[in-house]
Design goal:
- The structure holds two protein chains of two kinds.
- Chain A is mainly β.
- In chain A, 0% of the residues lie in helices and 53% in strands.
- In chain A, the strands form two sheets. In chain A, strands 2, 4, 5, 9, 10 and 11 form a six-stranded mixed sheet that branches. Chain A has a five-stranded antiparallel sheet with strand order 1-3-8-7-6, with no helix packed on it.
- In chain A, strand 7 and strand 8 form a beta hairpin.
- Chain A is globular.
- The model of chain A has no long low-confidence stretch (mean pLDDT 93).
- Chain B is globular.
- The mean pLDDT of chain B is 91.
- In chain B, a hairpin with an 8-residue loop joins strand 9 and strand 10.
- In chain B, the strands form two sheets. In chain B, strands 2, 4, 5, 6, 9, 10 and 11 form a seven-stranded mixed sheet that branches.
- Chain B is mostly beta strands.
- Classes of the chains: A mainly beta, B mainly beta.
- The interface between A and B is medium-sized, with 26 and 31 residues.
């Protein structure tokens, strides 16, 4: 049973436009969420996080939105740049537990120049 | 520079052989993890360890073994019992609370020939 889902395996966006990557989760106990970016043949790198006490967190061009009632989070990248082309994973955890993160299946973003 | 090092980057194994993947970190992190990445499957947890000399099975531990004799090291052995070992393996570490997510290594691509 996939507790964290990224239903769009791929997304293409024009350079300069907004990229919106979505993530849904089923476990209502999850209260801490991360986004990672991964280039081919490399390890994922941390991008941005959000705690369930917030509904938005911003870091430069990256903003994560959390809708707890819908069990949905999204990552917005504005403006998108060709260097943003990568696979993006969302991950969720229960903060009072072992911080064992459950990862989604990833969305491959392609930013077209 | 602190980081997490996986070696080798590429590994070829004959069917029926055991092989060990190395993971070393100098971040003074308490917890370490092994994930496997397959196309369309995201990152799946194999084993994790929160302290030295202790480790727990993840979601797909069958056919794998680990040890945690030192805080810095968490090697993964892929045994001949693992039916489909060809994959990209990622090691990660985190502070014990894991609040800021994981730091990942650059991965090892294992191919069974």
């Amino acid at each position: 049973d996939q507790q964290v889902k990224q239903n769009s395996p791929s997304l293409s966006v024009q350079e300069g436009r907004i990229s919106i990557l979505n993530c849904d989760y089923t476990n209502s106990m999850f209260d801490y969420f991360l986004w990672y970016k991964k280039y081919p043949a490399e390890g994922p790198t941390f991008l941005i996080s959000i705690s369930s006490i917030k509904d938005k967190n911003e870091d430069g061009r990256f903003t994560v939105f959390l809708n707890k009632s819908a069990k949905h989070l999204s990552l917005h990248i504005v403006p998108s740049q060709p260097g943003d082309s990568a696979v993006y994973f969302c991950a969720a955890s229960v903060s009072s537990g072992t911080y064992k993160y459950i990862f989604g299946t990833g969305t491959r973003l392609k930013v077209l120049a | 520079d602190g980081g997490i090092t996986q070696s080798p980057k590429y590994l070829f194994r004959k069917e029926g052989q055991n092989v060990t993947l190395s993971c070393e970190q100098n971040l003074n992190h308490d917890a370490m993890y092994w994930y496997r990445q397959d196309p369309g499957q995201g990152l799946r947890l194999i084993y994790y360890s929160q302290i030295v000399n202790d480790f727990q099975k993840g979601d797909i531990a069958e056919g794998y073994s680990v040890s945690r004799e030192k805080k810095e090291s968490f090697p993964l052995t892929v045994t001949s019992a693992q039916k489909n070992p060809t994959a990209f393996y990622l090691c990660a570490s985190s502070m014990s609370q894991g609040l800021y997510g994981y730091t990942f290594g650059s991965g090892t691509r294992l191919t069974v020939v």
